[in-house]
Input
Amino acid sequence: MLKKTLVFALSAALFAFSLAGCGGNSIDSAKASDADSQEKTEQAADAPEGASAAPITADKVADGTYPITVDSSSNMFRIVDAQLIVENGSMHCVMTLSGTGYGKLFMGTGDEAAAASEADFIPYVENAEGKYTYDVPVDALDEDTACAAWSIKRERWYDRTLVFESAGVDLRADALK
Output
């Protein structure tokens, strides 16, 4: 009987100590998370000197093809390659996604896509590596662009926000004035 009581007491003490250890870590991680958030805010305030405050339209970009970065609001919609093509006063981008889960895109919201006709959708083209590419129109660089993606598996539209970054794009000399 004494043995059972001793084992029970030691088990209870060990359990209590393990809970106390977890509680201490959550406070430390909360402090670390706050510090990370503050650091990210400070980094955002220190934007690159050449960063543009206003969106950049096609009339400000020299004709050509540029490798660019496209930021996505979703980790499930990851762009691994993007080529911006500027010609005759208009821009479009050939984007390559990391996966093959989206069958078509629509430049707008999911609700707008649901009401649109099939002719308004942008189908994928499979490249030589088996990746899906989409040739999408670009109204402006450095601004939020609504994009809806059709999930092949779930058979529904998902809203995404894309930002076509202007870093590395040649601006026309007369556009800098």
